[in-house]
Structures
1.
Amino acid sequence: MNEINIIQLLFYILPALVTGGIAFYFFNLHTKNEEGRRRFLLHKEMDKNTIPIRLQAYERMALFLERINPSKLLIRIAPESADKEVYESQLIAIIESEFDHNLAQQIYISDECWNVIKASKNATIQLIRKAAMNTENAQKLREEVLNNLLEKQPPSSAALGYIKKEIRELFS
């Protein structure tokens, strides 16, 4: 009789366990699905708010790169005297000032893009310093830098291309 009672008990418990297992499985699946949906909606809302800020950061960095483009920089900033060291220092100070003004933008752009922009800034400064070593006055410094740019692209061109690539990736 004991064996019969145990078998009958199993017949009652087995369907309850199967039903409970299936209910647990579907409840767990539903919970994960809801969590994923909430995460997606939160991410979508965040993107809606951050994309304009990120685009503004890319715009500001593109403007920075245009402003430090040596051909535009030399046209905008004329030498005040014939002293090349003063003019060289003035140009480098303007580049550094522009860069410092845009430091906060690194929060909104990728680290790789920020490093490309920094490399462009440093290459532009090196271009000016290298040209200053080969000249005797401020006017010759301007001519030397512009002549160097006739042979190759300014450093800011590569960084601008990288910014454009990142913006395309942002929308794809």
Note: The two ends are 72 Å apart (CA to CA).
2.
Amino acid sequence: MSKIDDQLFSAHEHALEKEYELCPKCGSELSVRHSKHGGFIGCNNYPVCDYTRPLVQHENLEAQVIEGSVCPECGHELAVKSGRFGIFIGCTNYPACHHIEKPGQDEAQAIACPVCNKGHMEQRTSRFGKSFYACNTYPKCKFLVNYPPVAESCPDCGFGILVERNTVSGKRLECPQKSCKFKRKL
């Protein structure tokens, strides 16, 4: 243990902190800096020079048109695009048409919303990363359930859907209405 070089572990001279490049603005040395949004490379002469750049250079994905695809809202072609939340499929007539295809979107498998009967239930993710199922006409209809919906009406109260829950005793179908106590094992 006495042969360990303490300089390797010092916070000031860490091997990954030095970049050994020169700033294109002022000619000073660049180093890895850290912020609440992650690491970046910045100039050591910071208050005078404000040069920064990201650690990883992401390639800018140009919109690639999908041949033979048609936007259901406006009739223009669809394209693979890159956005803030990753890659998605959207309409090429963007400012005028805001249509975006969601992954796994299948109209034949869609379960109708039991409250408004206009939209269908779709899986969404909360800001904490937990998934839930809500009506796709959200501002108008605020119905949601925390478990996967099943297109079967409740035999007790007649509500339009049941939810599938995984419990210790196994999978079971339940009515999402609080006033109804219907439960059935699968």
Note: The chain has a mean pLDDT of 81.
